[in-house]
Design brief:
Blueprint (H helix, E strand, L loop, with lengths): L1 H16 L1 E11 L5 E11 L5 H85 L1
Antiparallel strand pairs: 1-2
Helix pairs in contact: 1-2
């Protein structure tokens, strides 16, 4: 869309600014020996312009527009690549954090089991002592 608008504006500017002028000089000799020189200037606007120049300007404009479009595409591709790289790094960091949390939870679970086992053994010892004390 932008390319079409820019192309149309460039062509319109060229057509408006182009004027073709032709000058003719005509010398006529009278029977008495005197000469009369007449200069005629013909100007043509718009439609009478040289189509080769218009085509050349159009091609140059299109080449510049294509180059600008390519630069925009390249910048967009670079930005996409940077975003993808950042997303990949973030994903890796999150996976590592998840692994660390899992390892921490496993360690806490083992510590809780160990503490529960120690507590249970103490309760059993206490129960044995109580039973012995009651039997006496």
């Amino acid at each position: 869309m932008k390319k079409s608008i820019l192309t149309a504006l460039m062509i319109a500017a060229v057509v408006v600014s182009c004027t073709k002028s032709t000058s003719k000089t005509e010398t006529v000799e009278n029977p008495d020996g005197s000469t009369i020189t007449t200069t005629t200037t013909v100007s043509e606007n718009g439609i009478g312009v040289d189509s080769a120049k218009i085509n050349e300007v159009k091609e140059n404009t299109q080449a510049k527009i294509d180059a600008a479009g390519q630069k925009i595409d390249n910048a967009a591709e670079d930005a996409k690549n940077k975003i993808d790289a950042t997303a990949d790094k973030t994903k890796q960091d999150l996976q590592k954090a998840g692994q660390d949390i899992k390892e921490g939870a496993d360690k806490v679970g083992k510590d809780v089991k160990s503490a529960a086992a120690k507590g249970a053994s103490k309760v059993e010892e206490g129960a044995k002592k109580l039973k012995e004390d009651l039997s006496k």
